[in-house]
Every structure is written in C-alpha cells, then in structure tokens.
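Honest question from a wet-lab person: if I give you the sequences of every part of a complex, can you actually get the arrangement of the whole thing, not just the pieces? Trying it with mine:
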Amino acid sequence: MTTAGFDSRRISQRIAFTFLGLATAIAVLPVLFIIVYTIIRGGGAITWEFLTQFPSQAGRAGGILPAIVGTFYLMLGTLLFAQPIGALAGIYLTEYAPDNWLTRLINLAIANLAGVPSIVFGLFGLSVFVLAFDFGLSLLAASLTLAAQALAMVITTSREAILAVPREYREGSLAIGVTKWQTVRHVVLPQALPGIITGAVLAISRAAGETAPILVTGAAFLLPRLPQSPFDQFMALPYHLYTVAAHVPNMPKETVWGVAFVLLVVVLSFDVLAAAIRIKTRKRH
Amino acid sequence: MTKSLKECLIPLMLAVALMLSGCTSNSPAADASTLSGSIKIIGSNTVTPVSSVWAENFMKANPKVSIAVSGPGTGVGIAALMDGTTDICQASRPMTAKEIEQAKAKGVNPYEIHVASDALAVVVNPANPVSELTIEQLSAIYTGKITNWKELGGADAPIVAMARDTNSGTHVFFKEHVVQMYGLPKADKKLEYGDKVLFVPSTEIGVSEVAKNPNAIFYAGLGYVTKTVKAVAVKKTATDAAVKPSVATVVDGTYPVSRPLLYYTNGAPTGIIKAFIDYCLSEEGQEVVLELGFVPVAKQK
Amino acid sequence: MTPHDTATTVARASSRGLEPRLRLGERIIQGCIFLAGVLGIVVLLGIIFILLKEGVPIFAHVSPWEFLFGTHWYPVSDPPAFGIAPFIVSTLMITLISTALAVPIGVACAAYLSEIAPRKVAETAKPIIEILAGIPSVVMGFIGLALLSPLVRSTFNLNTGLCGLTAAIMLSLMSLPIIVSVSEDALHAVPGEFKEASYALGATKWETIWHVCVPAALSGIAAAIMLGVGRAIGETMTVLMVAGGALAVPVSPTDPMTTMTAAIASGIGNAVRGGLQYQALFAVGLMLFVLTLAVNIIADRVLERQKRKFPR
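Yes, you can. This is the full assembly:
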C-alpha cells in the first residue's frame, strides 16, 4: 500500500464525511427554521387569555383552551391504547411467533398499515368505534382511531428495537435456565426500551397533529364546555387550526399561526420528555 | 415504565385536572331563560363560522342550552342527519333527489331552511388589467377553451384557473351556473371543468395564490375578498351591464352568481331547535351573517 | 439458520423442558402477548374489510379496467366518471421523488450520527430531527404554501408553485425523521467486532461504514425506508395543500397534480355515506392499499436476498 494510495482513500473519506455532515445539516436545519418561522408569525398571538379562554366569534377572538385540553386527552388516550398493545405485539412477532409464511404475511401487512392514509383510518374509526361499537362521536372513538393508526408504527419500531438486541444476551440468559418471559422482561426489553420509546413518541407526536382521523370521529369546532367524560365530543388543536386557517373569513393571520405555535409546543413537549427518558435509559446500558 | 416517566406523568395529570376544575362553562347571562337542552350542528365548513357565532350568541342569551358545532363537510352532515346523530345539518349545497330518497328510506324527512346566501366573487390579481368578464368567457376559461389572458384583453400570459374541490358546495354550484351557463342561451349540461384547473382545498389557499400570482383567477365568497385581490365585474351576457359583487347587488339580483346556505332538520323544527333557528333568521341573527361576509336572507325578496 | 432461529430454538428447548414447572404467571403473560399480537392483526384486517365493503360496490358502476386506466374523474357529475389513472401516476411520481431525496440524506445522516459525530452532537441532533416528525401535516402545508411554493415557482419559472415537486420536497422532509431514527438504531446495533475486524484489515473509517456497517444494518435500514415510503404514500394534508390539485395526468413533476390521498380528501366531506362518490373514494383507498402492498412485497423480496448475504 503506497502512501499515494492511502492519501486518495483519505481524501475520499474527507469528501464522504463532508457529504454526511451536510446531510445531517439538511435533516436538522429545517426543523429549527420551521420552529423559528412559526414563532415569528404566531408568537404575537400568545397571551394568557389566548391559552385559557374559550374561543369566541368563530375563533377570531378569545382563546383555545378547550382545543389544548382536547389534544392532551387525545395524546393520552392514544398512548394508552397503542403503546402496550403495540409493544406486546412487537414482542410477540420477534420472540414468540414462528418464522413461517404467516408471520411474514403479518409483518408485511403491518408495513402496509403504515401507508394507509389518515382519511381511511378516520372512516374506519367512524364505521367501527362510532357506529358499530356505538361509542358515538367521542374522545374514546377518536383516541381508538388514532391508536389504530399509531399501531403500525409502534409495532414496527418496537420490533426493530427488539431485533437489535444481540442474540448473545438472549442465549446467555436462556443458557443459565432463565425462562423465556423472564429473559424478555429482564434482558431483552431493557436493552430495547430506548428504541421502543422512540417509536412510541414518534407515533404519538404524529397522532397529536393528525386532523383527518378525528374529523369524523368526534372533533368539533365549537363546544360550550370541556369534555366531562370519554363519551363527549371534544375540540382539538389540529382541527381548530385547519378550520380557522381555511374556513373563517377575516381571520387574522397571526391567530392562525398562534394556534400552530401552540400545537407545536404541545407536540414538542412530548418529544422532549421522551428524548430525556431515552438519554437516561441509554446511559444505564 | 421508568421512575422518571411516572414522575412526569403525575404532575401532568394533576395540571390537567386543575385546569378542568378551574375552567367551567361560560358565565351565565343576567336574564333567566327557561330554554334548556342541547343541539348538535354538523356539516359544511362554509357555514361553520356563521353557526358558531349564532350558537355563541344564543347560548349567552339561553345559558341552559348547549350547542355543538362541527364540520367537516356537507356530505358528512347529510349522513349524520340520516343516521339521527345530528339535529341540524348545515349545508352549502342543496340535497340531491337521491339523497332525499335515501333519507326518507331511513325514516328521516329533510326540511330545508334558507339561512343565508353566499355571493361568489371572481377574483384576479390586482395587477391584472382585465376587470370585466361575461359568464360565457368565464365558462371558456374554466373549461380550458381560453388559455391565455391576451384572448381577453390582458397580458400575454397563461391563465392559471383555480377552483374549489368537491368538498365545497361552491364546486358544483359554480359548475352548474357558470361553467355550464345555466339559464343562458348557450347552456350546456355536458361541460366540465378543464383538466388543467387547480382544485384547492380551501378558499384561503386560492385567494392567497391569486394575491401572489399575476395570472391566477379564482372564485371566493364575499367574506374572503380582501384588498390583496381584485373582484371582477361579471356580465350575464355581452349586452348586460358588468356588475361588481356586493351585498346590495346580490340582494337586488343584479349580481348573477350567488348560492344559498341551508339548514336541514328532520321534519319542521320544534322546541329549542325552532327557537334557535328563529334567532338565526331574526334581524340580529342576520346581522351576524353580514358581519361574516355573507348575504342576509331576510333582506332578499 | 439465522442467529434469530438459534435463539428461538434454544428458547423453545429450554421452555419445553421447563413446561410442566412453568408458573401460571408466565402462561398468562404469554397469553396476553399473543392476544396483543392478534389484536394488532385484527385492526389490519378491519381496515381491509372496511375498504372492501365500502369500495367494491363501485365496480357495479364502472369496470376495474376503466377505473384504473380512465383519465376522467367526475364523481359528482351526471353521468359520473371514475377514472383514477392521473392519481396513480401522481402518487407514484411524488413518492418516487420524495424517496429519492429522503433516503440518501436520511441514511447519510444516520451514518454520521451513529459512527462519526461525537456523542454530544448525536444526542442533540437526534431529538431535533425527531421533532420534524411531530410537526403536523397542516403546519407543513402552511410552510410549503408560504415559503416553498413561491421559491419553486421562481426557480423553475412555472405558472404556479403549487405542483408535484413542492409536495415531494415537503414529503421528503416529513419522512426524514423516521428514516434517520430507525436507520441510526440499526447502525448502532452493528456489532463492534465487525468494525474492529475491518479496521484491523486497514480499512479507513469511511470504508468501514460503506462496506461493512451499512450492509450489516441493511435490513434495519430497509425497514426504515419502508416506513418512510409508507409515510410519503399515505400523507394527505400537506399534499392536498401544495400539490396543485389538477385532474390531468401529470407529465412532469412541475405540473400541478392530485395524488390518490388528495383525491380522497377532496371529496370525503361532500360524499354521503353509501353514495356513489363515497364508494368511489373508498375504492381509491383500496387501490392505495394494493399499491402499498406491491411496494412492500417487492421490498420484502429484496430484503430476503440481502438477508442471505448478511445474516443477523
């Protein structure tokens, strides 16, 4: 290996690394830009009244409190329904399901589910939860619908996170006589936890910003009070944003961006929380 | 779940619970109204703002009544009326004969109430020299027969024709009354929107594009026409006067392009629903209509 | 046999030996896990069932051939026309472009974060990128309308910036986070021995990444890409707002166009349950599902071949 040969490989490494760094910048910068832009255009609308009052005059005055509360309820509901089932399904598919055509078909079907448009989930939720299960237009129906949408992503990312755990960990544990479930619970899961959490957060953040699934399962533009039970209708930030942006004449632009800003903050707070958890758990292992 | 997650969740839930207890419904009005109950309004997004303000005002005067207003479309409202999951269907287009039949088969009797009107202004960019158009010319633009502004006395530039998508009642209304030239000698029911026409999901998007794009043309309810765009004067035929859209010209019938906004109930309205609709059609209710940029019904003949 | 198989066999052998002494608790837990797996599948089946139930009736009014290859879409006219060729072409075009943009950038970024960047940088960058996934489609639509579409219009000298390219760029931003995140997890999981062996043979860091890490993580990366493609195909709001909404079959990415998702969204507010337009829209949803299935099957085949080269 001549020095010249090594130098040219060094140079291509430099070039490659520059490209990789650039790619990372492209992935990181738009977010910051979008957040800053939203703050600039909507920050002016954020007042205490805006955050704590009910809307008035078709959203052109007053505040967006019920939409904020509604979105939080939806996120909690989605988390509750999607995360345990999704993670368990992921465990089943990686640890317990036999490696046959059926499992491959199931994995394929789940990948497919990720591509189903939110509209279709909305209609699914309407047919099943609102009508067939008779939950009516409600928080419950909407949460279940959002959870169904999140399920595909939660299962896939859980599965990937579990598959990433090196087999030696499992084999070592089983070799000393630990049962399957105990191995999963005490050896595999803790290792896979950061990845599972990442997946759950990505899916639920997305759910919080979804408009279509909640449109036909219970979201309202105007309600006189906060939802008192899971069977009540609710307001939500994405639907509120969509309606004030598109369908209210003489809507001050700053208010629209203000709602967008609040939605971003709500979604981001979940992201930050989960990132903190993930950093903590990654450090431990 | 790790300890830290539990630690974060509990304060979060407490905060939400606190918010709930602190924020009850709107403060009651001074007078004691005896009306009580709840009303659900579902349907068109166009009518949603009007319904919302009506609901807000009515609830202030009748604190024991609660009204919920939702979109997201006329069709959804019609289906809800048929299922019995709504009291009022707000619609930006009339129900078709087929839909009425479907409703009757389910035991629902749709009762139509004209609550407001929507004047459709044809808007172009303020820099566009064209200020008058006949319905025939509009039809030619939207079917793709005329593709360049110079054919209409404007600049040598391609026309970017924009319309609303089928979610809006305006889509069909504009098609029937302008594209297909309903009621005019050249009326042709076979005409369709051209395939280069841009269908946008909201009036706001269309108006923004017209404001930015010197070659765009769009139609929008009066309430959305701002100083950033120019409303074109419309001539019914080449020999008629060109009329600019306004509440006055819709009311006296000289502006040719205006559509009705409707409420549908199951049978003639009774009880609090009737009280509510009476309010909507009252002088005060129709003031709301005006304020939002629509055309009041009461003033029309 | 793959290592996964080995582990499973060992697990089965040991659990078979322990079976008579398996605690009831373990049995119950296994039952719950199985149920959860089944529940996940039930949801899928439910969606397919709904799509079929509501969409298939349209084929009494239009032949499948006409539906797939017809170029006229007049769902509310009398007589109506239900040709979705323009939507299929638009979906394919926009998905292809957005994937072509997002995959190289996403995988490159994942490689950077997992192998090259100092841990502090990686730990700050990852959450920031994930935030991009949380930005709601409506907000992305606003940004596309306000900022990207005028830019595209002036750069390419178009009639309007509302076109397929604008939509594709926004979509690539939206699928980036999932591609980066899952790829990074996959690269991170590549055993250290692989890399050490590569360095021991004298390879540079870049060569190790390109020839060892990426191929070893390929099935994870492919899963990431599939999730990203899924997001792109299924995205509704953003595309609805910036792709233009024209009904013609698009010839170039700079044409205004309507994807299958946008077609559904533009009509669903007006369609009355059980009516013709409603059935047609569900049929579009069905076609979308079939399209996604085809893409996933192809990807699955490619993956199988790759797995044989680099077993996990």
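Two things worth pointing out. Residues 177 and 272 of chain C are 37 Å apart (CA to CA). Chain C touches chain B at residues 71-72, 74-77, 86, 145, 150, 153, 159-160, 162, 240-241, 244-248, 256, 258, 265-275, 277-278 (CB under 8 Å).
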